[in-house]
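ingest -> fold -> write
write: protein_1
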Amino acid sequence: MLRVAEIFTSIQGESTYAGLPCHFIRLAGCNLKCSYCDTPYAQSFSAGSDTNIDFLVKSAEDSALKLVEITGGEPLAQSETPLLCSELLKRNFTVLVETNGSKPVSVLPNEVVKIMDCKTPSSGMVDTNDFNNFKFLDSKDEIKFVLADYNDYLWASSIISTYKLAEITQSLLLSPVWGRIDTAQLVSWILRDHLPARLNLQFHKIIWGPDKSGV
C-alpha cells in the first residue's frame, strides 16, 4: 500500500519532459519542510488515502498515456515506491520519479528517470542533501535546483562545478521560485557565466496560476 494525496492527468509542467501529457501519482508525506514548498497539502503523511499498487497501475493504464510521474510529498519516504515503479516499467511506461535528494535513489530501478532536487540555501533544508546520490545518476536523469535569490544561484553553480554534474547529465535544471526571483535576471546570470544548465519554468503555474492543485 502507498499513501496517495492525489492522482490526475495533465501536461508535465517541469523538467525536460515539460509540455508532454502525463499521468501523475502524487504520494503523501515528506521528510522535509522547504520554505518554498508549493504542495503543502501533500506534506503530511496523514494526507490522502492508502491505495494499493494494482489500483495505481490501473489508473495509469486507464489514462491511455505512456508517461507517468511519481511525485509528492517525497516518493522515497514510502518503502513500496520502488515496487510501484517496477510494476509500471513492466507495462512499458516511461516512469519519472521526482525526489528531494535526501534519500538514497539507488533503491529505484535503473530504468526510472530520476529527477533529483538539490536543496538550495533558501529552502532551509540544504544540510539534508545526500550528494552520494550523484553516483547513482546517469545521462537520462535530471538534477534540479530551485532558486529564490542570487545566493541560491551561486550555490547551485558551485555544486555543478564541484561535482562535475555536466559530465553526469546534460539535464541540469534551474527552477525559479514563483514570485521570488526575476526570471530575466536569472537568464542573464546563466548567459554571463556560460552555465551548462537549462531554465526550468513551471508551465502548470503559468497556465493555471500558482495555487491550483491537480494540474
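write: protein_2
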Amino acid sequence: MGKDLIQQRRGKGSQRYRSPSFKYAGKISHRPYTSEEKEGKVTGIIADIIHSTGHSAPLAIIEYEDGYQTLIAAPRGVYVGYEVEAGSEASIKPGNTLPLKNIPEGTEVYNLEKIPGDGGKYVRSAGGFAKVVGKTANGISVVLPSKKVKEFNPESRATIGLIAGFGKTEKPFLKAGAKYHARRARNKLYPIVSGTSMNAVDHPFGGSKSSHKGRPTIAPRNAPPGKKVGKLRPKRTGRKKR
C-alpha cells in the first residue's frame, strides 16, 4: 500500500511548499572584512529600517562611507540616520560590528560569525542576544540564547546590542489562519499532525485507534522512504542496566 507522506511531498517543488523568496528583502550579513577594518574602522549610517517577511526582526539598511551597502538585523534603540561603525577600533555601542577579541566581557552581541568572514551565523532572530563571558587562549566564550556556552574564534565578528522585536513570541496569533499565513511566508509546514492520528494510508503509525502505533517503532536499517519513521536504528532502547 502506498503511503504519500509529508516528508515525501515537501521536496517535490509543488507550489504549496515553495518559499516566496522573491518577497524577502535580502540576506543579512556583515560587510566583507577589509584591511581598512582590520587596522581601524569604517563609518556608516542607517539609511532605512524595513520589514521582511523572511525575517522575524526589523532590518536596517546601512550605507558606509566607502559606498558599500549591507543589511543587518536592527538592534534595539537605533533609528534612521543613526551612525554605526565596523572595524577593530569601533566603539562599543549598539549597531557597531567588531571582532570578538575586542569586545569586553559582559557585552550583549548578536549575529556572531562561525568562521571569520562568513557574515554571521548565530543569534539572528527577534529579541535574541548572546553575551561574551570569557576570553581564553583557545578562544572567546559566549553564552548563546539556549544558555549553552560556545567558544568562538577571536577574529570572528559580532554586532553589539540586542536585536529589536523583543516580545514578538509573546503576542498571541488568536486564529489558526493567522498562524498558517505566518508559517507559509517562510515555507514552514502547518499544521503538523501526529502520525498516530492519521489514516493507515497516510502514515505507518496511522489507522486502528488513536495513540496506538500498531507496529514496532524501530525502522529497519534498509527501509525505503516512507517507511523510515520512528526510531531510526538506535544503538539501544529501554532503561539502561547498571
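write: annotation protein_2
The radius of gyration is 23 Å.
The first helix runs from residue 6 to 9.
pipeline exit 0
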